[in-house]
Design a protein that fits this description.
Helices cover 42% and strands 17% of the residues. The protein is built from 27 helices and 26 strands. The chain has 713 residues and is of the alpha/beta class. β17, α20 and β18 form a beta-alpha-beta unit. Bound molecules: iron/sulfur cluster (SF4) (2 copies). One iron/sulfur cluster binds next to α26. The site of one iron/sulfur cluster (SF4) has 11 residues, from α24.
């Protein structure tokens, strides 16, 4: 990874009484070190990638503390790491994006939670739910309930988050149960401050190694008959210990307001949104000084019956503000209230929406109608027009723009090496007809959007080949499964390739090898070239220096294997066609390689800067469109979708359509030229080399050209 976290690494070293300023997820990283973790692992993904990225870059400092950091190949291996805390009194933390990561990790999580832990085990969950989410909309809460893992959902402010990390380890150790701490997207990225403490060097660590192996104890094996006793421990002992700790340490908060009869219950993570909604109703100031009572659940599982009973019995109506579905908290509180025969109405999803993010706008609507129902005069003194005001603001913005902003689907970066592959596939479809494409998670899923619109399904990370097995069996034309190198190592090698080889069945797999897990922040893979090799390959954009993927596939028994450079569109077309028409009946794998352009540009930037500073020769390649030749049919744009290949009005009064135009953002990847040739487009594209600090021959040549052009014109 070329992105530098130098500043953030320094922030990890702050000591007693220093002021930490930064984003939520980095505060968690610092809190882990303050809590004395022995090991940290995880799999990157929004919104928690930075936690691990910073620790990986702080390698030297981690070694000094004796903390082991592991960049795991998937969430399952991260969860299994927590097994260290089963037998040894060590604190460990792992992280991933949920719900998808939790799904992948669930086998290890079930085993871990059945056995229980001796040392604190904490899972930092990036709850990627709601606006801006990139995955299916499910809750981690369901997994926490079914596996008996405690679930923390702290208020989004840095002090609470840091304190919750510390308490999470204590809770885990006391109740012998792993703990999840879910952080929403906004919580991970919110900026704030807190006063730090010294980091704690763990007692057992990479420096202080254990001399004695933990004794064999069959009770700690997740295998029958131990599992029967473990189930009893979960509900006979561990949950009571947890509830007592939560109660005694006041991990949940109760704010008493002056309004009688009604109260609110909110997940801690939604607290800021609730306060801003209440502020709009003149019911609170920004510091949370609310007129209505609020029970803030920083711990959403387990709930503490005594706390709920004491709070609920004061009111006639209680609104549960719980994001997502199913409404687990509402159901549990409702059942408890009914059993205890407390005369209070439990309201929730009958007022607030079942699905979607609870923004302050959504919460405002729900809380407003809840209060109005119990206090008829409320409408007279509150700002009931908040939502109307928001709508009016949107209307004003629309009027200022003149028209609605057109939808802008996400797409490949400028010069992305994956774009040419899909251009080639589009051209192939013109010849052979529509192809069933099983797609996958990763940058290449941008090809599901216009202008490519490829893909019939996405079944998970590294799952495309497995997903195409059934389709393959009944399809006349071979389907194509596409995955990135990230997906290949995450799951694709075993779930897809090994399975296809085991069944000796037909199929086509395309691995788009860009060298990194690019979509999650360009983290390294086992097949990422070493940085020296990357420097050497600076001009070639090749990622295939070690051929690690080819070696793995050959070792497994793949016989039909071709590697092609994605920018050579003609070669890509040829190899796809070969795979579609081959008489070979087994698995055919195409490795389409080309380095992630984002990462490449990060690396080239300092090289360019230094070259120019040293006043050395530097060449930049750019493509452009000849205005006079472009007819304005835009087929080049439909074949590419490059953000820098756009349109502008034509200066020719005889042309009514806008013409194609390449902006200054062009990185000269060459796709425009390749597409023009391979798809026999109009000859309007030109390629230019912009040379800074040219050599003497180039200067003379330039002088002569100018002269000739001068004479001719
Ligand atoms: S991050 Fe890299 S691989 Fe992903 S779209 Fe951008 S250039 Fe392509
Ligand atoms: S050559 Fe074409 S596709 Fe490549 S960056 Fe430039 S405009 Fe985009």
């Amino acid at each position: 990874m070329e992105r530098s976290f130098k500043k953030e690494v320094e922030a990890l070293k702050l000591g007693d009484g220093d002021l930490f300023e930064g984003e939520g997820i980095l505060a968690v990283t610092k809190a882990l070190l303050q809590s004395g973790v022995s090991y940290v692992g995880g799999y990157q993904g929004s919104p928690v990638s930075n936690l691990l990225d910073v620790m990986v870059q702080a390698k030297d400092y981690m070694e000094e503390l004796g903390v082991h950091v592991e960049a795991c190949t998937n969430e399952s291996s991260a969860a299994a790491m927590l097994g260290a805390s089963i037998n040894y009194p060590v604190r460990g933390a792992v992280t991933w994006k949920s719900i998808v990561g939790t799904n992948v990790a669930s086998d290890a999580l079930s085993h871990l939670s059945s056995v229980g832990v001796l040392g604190g085990a904490l899972i930092i969950i990036g709850e990627d739910y709601g606006e801006g989410s990139s995955i299916i909309q499910e809750r981690t809460h369901g997994v926490a309930l079914k596996s008996t893992i405690w679930l923390l959902d702290p208020k989004p402010n840095l002090e609470t988050i840091v304190n919750t990390v510390q308490k999470a380890f204590e809770l885990s150790e006391l109740s012998h149960t792993p703990v999840m701490m879910q952080l929403r997207i906004r919580t991970c990225h919110l900026q704030g401050k807190f006063y730090t403490k010294n980091n704690k060097k763990p007692n057992i660590s990479t420096i202080n190694k254990v001399k004695e192996v933990a004794p064999h104890n069959y009770d700690l094996i997740a295998h029958p008959p131990s599992t029967y006793a473990q189930e009893e421990l979960k509900y006979g002992e561990r949950i009571d210990l947890a509830k007592r700790y939560i109660l005694e340490n006041s991990l949940n908060e109760i704010h008493q307001g002056s309004i009688q009869n009604i109260g609110l219950v909110v997940q801690g993570g939604l607290y800021n949104n609730l306060i801003s909604a209440l502020k709009e109703m003149s019911l609170s100031d920004e510091t949370g000084n609310s007129k209505i009572s609020i029970y803030i659940l920083n711990i959403v599982h387990p709930l503490v019956p005594e706390e709920i009973e004491n709070y609920a019995k004061k009111f006639k109506g209680l609104l549960i503000i719980e994001e997502g579905q199913p409404p687990y908290i509402e159901q549990e509180i409702g059942l408890l209230i009914q059993k205890l025969k407390i005369p209070v109405d439990i309201r929730g999803k009958d007022i607030l929406p079942m699905a979607g993010e609870y923004t302050s706008e959504v919460i405002h609507k729900g809380v407003f109608s809840f209060i109005s129902e119990y206090d008829k005069s409320f409408k007279n003194f509150s700002n009931k027009n908040y939502n109307t005001e928001v709508e009016a603001l949107k209307e004003d913005a629309l009027n200022l723009l003149g028209s609605a902003v057109p939808p802008r689907p996400p797409g490949f970066c400028t010069g992305c090496p994956e774009r040419p592959f899909f251009s080639a596939l589009k051209m192939i479809e013109k010849d052979v007809g529509k192809i069933h494409v099983s797609t996958d998670i990763g940058c290449h899923s941008f090809a599901t959007f216009a202008p490519f619109s490829f893909g019939q399904s996405i079944l998970g990370y590294g799952m495309s080949l497995a997903a195409s097995a059934g389709v393959q069996s009944f399809s006349d034309k071979r389907p194509i499964a596409i995955m990135g190198d990230g997906g290949f190592w995450h799951n694709g090698l075993l779930s897809g390739v090994a399975s296809r080889l085991l069944n000796n069945s037909d199929g086509i797999l395309v691995i788009l090898q860009n060298g990194y897990t690019s979509a999650t922040g360009t983290q390294d893979l086992i097949s990422t070239p070493e940085s020296e090799q990357r420097q050497l390959a600076a001009s070639s954009s090749s990622t295939n220096t070690d051929k690690t993927i080819e070696k793995a596939l050959k070792g497994l028994g793949v016989e039909w294997l071709k590697t092609v450079h994605t920018y050579e569109v003609g070669s890509v077309k040829k190899v796809i066609f070969e795979a579609l028409s081959s008489n070979f009946k087994g698995l055919k794998v195409i490795i389409a390689e080309g380095e992630c352009q984002l990462e490449r540009q990060r690396r080239l930037k300092p090289i360019k800067y230094k070259t120019l500073k040293d006043k050395k020769r530097f060449v930049k390649v750019r493509y452009g469109v000849d205005e006079d030749t472009c007819t304005g049919d835009h087929s080049c744009i439909r074949l590419s979708g490059c953000p820098t290949l756009t349109v502008k009005p034509s200066n020719d009064p005889l042309k009514s359509d806008p013409i194609a135009y390449v902006t200054d953002g062009c990185v000269g990847c060459g796709l425009c030229g390749e597409n023009a040739i391979e798809a026999t487009l109009c000859p309007s594209f030109w390629k230019a080399k912009i040379i800074t600090n040219p050599n003497i021959t180039e200067r003379v040549l330039n002088w002569m050209r100018k002269k000739v052009i001068g004479v001719l014109s």
